[in-house]
């Protein structure tokens, strides 16, 4: 059995970072990527020794090539790939411009799909691929149409990807966080009043009555990455405290 190894895109904060910490604790070799230089530097200092932190922009295929080379040189192969990098920028239609649209789809859709393409030769047979999608792809969120579309495109790909990679027993699944307390809200660039409106509406609709934690999502990703989920593929697992269950 090869030593388990995972690449986590968008691993310097929030769900990605929580997953890196959890999988490292469980014996995985871990590489994480992040875009912001200051956040990357801080993560290198703060994560445990042995976790590799690389600066890479999910929108730039040259960066993805470099990450693939680094993974190959350090680990030789991967048993898990967590495609988590993404942006959330609530934007009303009246304020939407082409640049915001292109940025969302380049980061959330193209970046994650081509990371899989570039890393595919390094995935071991029986490996696990997990995409972060989010419940916004299937449930309405004010101002969330572009984010939902860019993430939802990944969700539409999951069944076909799962079938295509099934001959190698590579499992392809998605995790869809609901309202999770992570820095993605403050980094969205949306006006504070819009964020407050969205988060208040989301909290009010959650049967559990609270936002989730990054660790709770990380536990689901860890399950999907493990052999315990060896017969699970083509699925989207919602981690949302019952969001959307009420009529």
From TrEMBL:
It comes from Pseudonocardia hierapolitana. Belongs to the short-chain dehydrogenases/reductases (SDR) family. The keyword Oxidoreductase applies. The lineage of its organism: Bacteria, Bacillati, Actinomycetota, Actinomycetes, Pseudonocardiales. CDD domains: SDR_c. InterPro entries: NAD(P)-bd_dom_sf (IPR036291), SDR_DHRS6-like (IPR051122), SDR_fam (IPR002347). Pfam families: adh_short_C2. This is NAD(P)-dependent dehydrogenase (Short-subunit alcohol dehydrogenase family). One of its GO terms (molecular function) is oxidoreductase activity. It comes from the Bacteria. Keywords: Oxidoreductase.
């Amino acid at each position: 059995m090869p030593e388990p190894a995972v690449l986590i895109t968008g691993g310097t904060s929030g769900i990605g970072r929580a997953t890196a910490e959890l999988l490292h604790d469980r014996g995985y070799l871990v590489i994480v990527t992040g875009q912001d230089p200051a956040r990357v530097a801080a993560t290198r200092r703060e994560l445990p020794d042995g976790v590799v932190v690389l600066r890479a922009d999910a929108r730039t295929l040259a960066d993805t090539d470099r990450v693939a080379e680094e993974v190959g040189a350090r680990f030789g192969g991967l048993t898990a790939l967590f495609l988590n990098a993404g942006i959330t920028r609530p934007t009303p239609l009246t304020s939407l411009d082409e640049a915001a649209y292109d940025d969302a789809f380049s980061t959330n859709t193209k970046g994650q799909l081509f990371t899989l393409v570039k890393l595919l030769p390094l995935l071991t047979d029986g490996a696990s691929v997990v995409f972060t999608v989010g419940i916004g792809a299937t449930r309405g969120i004010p101002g969330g149409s572009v984010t939902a579309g860019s993430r939802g495109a990944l969700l539409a790909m999951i069944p076909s990807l799962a079938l295509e990679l099934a001959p190698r027993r590579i499992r392809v699944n998605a995790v869809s966080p609901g309202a999770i307390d992570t820095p993605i809200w403050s980094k969205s660039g949306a006006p504070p009043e819009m964020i407050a409106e969205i988060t208040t509406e989301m909290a009010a609709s959650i049967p559990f009555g609270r936002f989730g934690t990054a660790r709770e999502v990380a536990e689901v990703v860890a399950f999907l990455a493990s052999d315990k989920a060896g017969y699970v593929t083509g699925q989207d697992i919602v981690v949302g405290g019952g969001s959307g269950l009420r009529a």
